[in-house]
Design a protein that fits this description.
The chain is mainly alpha-helical. It folds into 3 domains: 71 residues, no CATH class; 245 residues, no CATH class; 167 residues, no CATH class. The chain is 76% helix and 1% strand. A two-stranded antiparallel sheet has the order 1-2. A hairpin with a 4-residue loop joins strand 1 and strand 2.
Length: 584
């Protein structure tokens, strides 16, 4: 049956089968913890679907698609390599060590280190990639000294990356969203109108700060933090494979050797994004950001910043020119794991067709809503008030399965505009915000998400450990968001934009307060630890049962195989006897 399906590649296109490669990759990653193998398996499965089950053609398509993705995302890859070089330069110049010593004098507690990480993450709102790697490089020496686990650092980085970018009008994410809104509307204004309704971003930032101040941790994160207190910052997990930066013979540096490169990098990247948009024909500052090519702009800005930094190091004698040049190779090596995972993730997303093409997951999603892209019409009969919550759930699922929030934006925002284009502004902006919020949640908990990969890379945290420790936090926020979107949807259907914003924020604040107070009470009473133990035991029981079921299945399959073999042998003997009788 399956072989017959593989012989008809068109069967998989535009159907639920488009999501199977991602499901394979995600399940294997969570079970085996082997990210490279899992992603490759998902990619190969998608290529097999598209090439009628021909392995050689599948490998050819895989290589061609991967090459295309590397070319299309070349700017981001250059940016990553340059950031790796920056990290090496800052270590060799003694800047990282000097900053760590200075910060240790100023920041004496784990809470202070976490709040400083959050503050720096919120300040770097231009791009999530830039945020993840820059904050990780700057704050890791400080958080290591205060014995903060790398999993917790990755959570703080990830929670100040996409959630901050998605509510920042001047960012690469804002540029992406405004591009999906079409030419008929003022994209940037519409994006700004969605910010008060983006409950996932607001809840994530609020819960992160409150948990840090109240010293609360949940489930596996709590275990990681206890192990970090004993000196095991990786909590027993294998770190990302990367070359250690050699620090032998590094002289005592200055804090300026770290601060200057970071400030230069921020200024140059922002200026480059503006210039890129300006050259595209958009002279206004906000319009330039909304229409720039962020990947190319970040690559150009980072290269300029690197040249300025090398000149600065040579002029101040912080680092010799020869040492600066030798840092290029080490910086590239340190980014190889992240580049490899990102390349696999981009290839998987392309084969699935989150934005159309190949397996065309986009068409399947549109068919679920009854949306015709050619006519721009939809035949949905859903109650208007429930639509934002539905969009939120669908966006969560798509983003989780595909690992791309931007692809989710591109798929669902046009549908939301079509369905609610004639509704009042409050309901329309609420639905669009639900799409953005759901996409960021799926992006947060997906093992194949590029932003999640960057966060674990920046924190030097095992990638799967980061996913597992962050998932409970993100999922709790997502559940609260879903409840708010249900209530706000029916409110928005009957009230103005301003009134809906006020009521929605009030409902959200009340829910967050109740949740935080409840968790704090359970933690102080010791009930949170008991709940954690029960949940861990339940998962362990499920895991052992699954292994037992697999063993029973294998044994059962073996017995069935023996029976089938015996039946075939009997049938063959009967056939030989019949043939012999016929000959006689």
């Amino acid at each position: 049956m399956f072989t017959q399906l593989l012989g008809a590649g068109e069967y998989f296109i535009g159907t639920f089968w488009a999501f199977v490669p991602a499901i394979i990759a995600i399940v294997l990653a969570l079970i085996t913890k082997q990210v490279y193998l899992s992603l490759f398996a998902g990619i190969f499965a998608g290529a097999m679907f598209l090439t009628d089950g021909n392995p050689l053609d599948a490998l050819t398509m895989l290589a061609e698609t991967m090459s295309t993705q590397i070319g299309d995302n070349g700017g981001i890859l250059i940016f990553l390599v340059v950031l790796g070089i920056f990290a090496v330069l800052m270590v060799k110049s003694g800047g990282s060590q000097a900053y760590g010593e200075w910060a240790s004098c100023k920041i004496k507690t784990k809470t202070g280190a976490q709040l400083a990480t959050i503050g720096l993450g919120c300040l770097i709102f231009v791009d999530d990639y830039f945020n993840c790697l820059t904050v990780g490089s700057a704050m890791r020496p400080v958080t290591d000294k205060t014995k903060l686990s790398h999993a917790k650092l990755a959570y703080l980085i990830d929670s100040t990356a996409a959630p901050v970018c998605i509510i920042a009008p001047i960012s690469s994410w804002a540029a992406a969203v405004t591009g999906f809104l079409g030419d008929e509307s003022n994209g940037l204004v519409d994006f700004i109108m969605t910010i008060p309704f983006n409950m996932y971003a607001l809840f994530t930032i609020a819960m992160m700060i409150l948990f840090v101040v109240l010293k609360l941790d949940l489930f596996k994160m709590k275990k990681n933090e206890k192990r970090a207190e004993q000196g095991d910052l990786y909590a027993g997990e294998t770190d990302l494979p990367s070359e250690d930066i050699k620090t032998d013979g590094v002289k005592k540096g200055k804090v300026a050797s770290l601060v200057f490169p970071i400030i230069t990098l921020i200024v140059c990247c922002v200026a480059s994004m503006y210039y890129n948009g300006y050259k595209a024909g958009y002279p206004k500052f906000t319009e330039a950001f909304a229409n720039c090519s962020s990947g190319t702009a970040l690559a150009v800005g980072s290269i300029i910043a690197l040249i300025i930094t090398i000149i600065y190091y040579a002029a101040t004698k912080s680092l010799s020119f020869k040492n600066c040049m030798s840092s290029f190779t080490e910086g590239f090596k340190s980014m190889v794991p992240a580049i490899l995972i990102l390349t696999f993730a981009w290839t998987l997303c392309a084969l699935m067709g989150a934005k159309g093409g190949h397996l065309d997951a986009k068409t399947y999603i549109q068919s679920v809503f009854g949306y015709d892209e050619a006519t721009g019409m939809t035949n949905t009969t859903m109650a208007m008030g429930i639509i934002p919550a539905v969009f939120f759930i669908v966006a969560c699922l798509i983003s989780f399965a595909t690992g791309t929030s931007w692809g989710t934006f591109g798929t669902l925002i046009p549908i939301s505009l079509c369905i609610l284009g004639k509704a009042n502004s409050a309901l329309l902006y609420l639905a669009m915000s639900a799409v953005l919020a759901g996409a960021v949640y799926g992006d947060h908990v997906s093992p194949i998400s590029d932003t999640t990969i960057m966060a674990s890379t920046g924190a030097r945290c095992n990638h799967i450990d980061h996913v597992k420790t962050q998932m409970p936090y993100a999922t709790i926020v997502a559940v609260m968001c879903f409840i708010v979107y249900i209530a706000a949807g029916f409110i928005a259907a009957k009230m103005s934009y301003g009134a809906t914003v006020g009521i929605t924020l009030a409902i959200g604040a009340a829910m967050m307060a109740v949740f935080i107070v409840s968790v704090y009470f359970l933690d102080k009473k010791g009930l949170l630890d008991k709940l954690n133990d029960k949940v861990s035991a339940a998962f362990a029981k499920i895991g052992s049962k699954s292994k037992s079921d697999i063993s029973d299945t294998i044994q059962g399959s073996s017995e069935i195989s023996d029976e089938i073999e015996e039946m075939i042998t009997t049938a063959d003997n009967d056939s030989e006897n019949n043939t012999s009788n016929d000959e006689k």
